[in-house]
Specification:
Elements lengths: L1 E6 L3 H12 L4 E7 L2 H8 L6 E4 L8 H11 L4 E5 L4 H12 L4 E4 L9 H15 L23 E2 L11 E6 L3 H10 L9 E5 L6 H12 L3 E3 L11 E3 L5 E4 L5 E4 L11 H12 L3 E5 L8 H9 L3 E5 L9 H7 L5 E3 L1 H12 L3
Parallel strand pairs: 1-2, 1-3, 3-4, 4-5, 7-8, 7-13, 8-10, 9-10, 13-14, 14-15
Antiparallel strand pairs: 6-15, 11-12
Helix pairs in contact: 2-3, 3-4, 4-7, 6-7, 6-11, 8-9, 9-10
Length: 350
Amino acid sequence: MIKVLVVEDSPTVRELLIHILGGDPEIQIIGTASSGSEAVRSLAREMPDVITMDIQMPDMNGLEATRLIMATQPVPIVIVSAQWNPQEVATTFQAMEAGAVAVLEKPRGIGHADYESQSRKLIQTVRLMSEVKVVRRWRSAKARAEPEAKPAVALRRPVARRDIRVVAIGASTGGPPVLQTVLAGLPRDFTAPVLIVQHIAAGFVQGLADWLAQTTGFPVHLAAHGESLLPGHVYLAPDDRHLGINAQLRAVLSDDAPEHGLRPTVSHLFHSVTKVCGGDAAGVLLTGMGKDGAAELKAMKEAGALTLAQDEATSVIYGMPGEAARLDAASLILPPAQIAATLAGLLAPP
């Protein structure tokens, strides 16, 4: 049984979460809490496998509770947040920086058109996150803790400086803090645009862009169809639109059919970049479940592009980068800080 602590101050939402999660035969609700301080006290009595955490609560909010829990008694924390509240969305990404492993929108009530899909997503996420091994996060730390850096695992000859027109990055579960680490490690005069597909609950991508801009120093935007891609700027795929590029290095958004059941997809981005740039590109595949982008990363490598994948030790879920490693799609397999250093070394101005 997967033991879950539900932390939510709204009685209505709390009962809905209990109803959804309690409907899975492998999930046991071992307790509830209506504030962050109550959640922390609950950990002294029982050890859940997963905590679902609200953000805005009285006494102690979800951010402070996450920081305290991850510093004292680490447990996988899934943030269940209200995407319509900009302040709550902003705080959600601070909680992920503090060690929370996933974010979901608060599910709609029974009878709503999205209820079934949101319920399945909640159950799937809780089950997956119960298997994640989290590490203690000292409260003063600003970046996601990583194991001691290991030497890069070279899968071919060492890479040399080259002309890179575009950097394309794909991420899913656990991705936001890793994106922050990678972007923060790049020089401010970085010479290529960075395009990102991050699988995230609908309504949160603008908050992710704002948080990355505030914490990395880079201009971060939601990509707009037809806009020119500028060096040193970061572009995120918006909700429910595939992101690609054209020969003039302009963003191309499309409503093409979902791939791997998703839109946007890393696969679409990588394929587009390979078609336009060939070997004059870099592809990066970060933590996440599934296989999205792995085969297309291999195609990028075969076209001569630099391809990087996150290592298993620092991945929340080693699905996407693990599949890339299995396919021999990555030129290098590295922790996030070394991914940033590799890109910086290739693309910093001479």
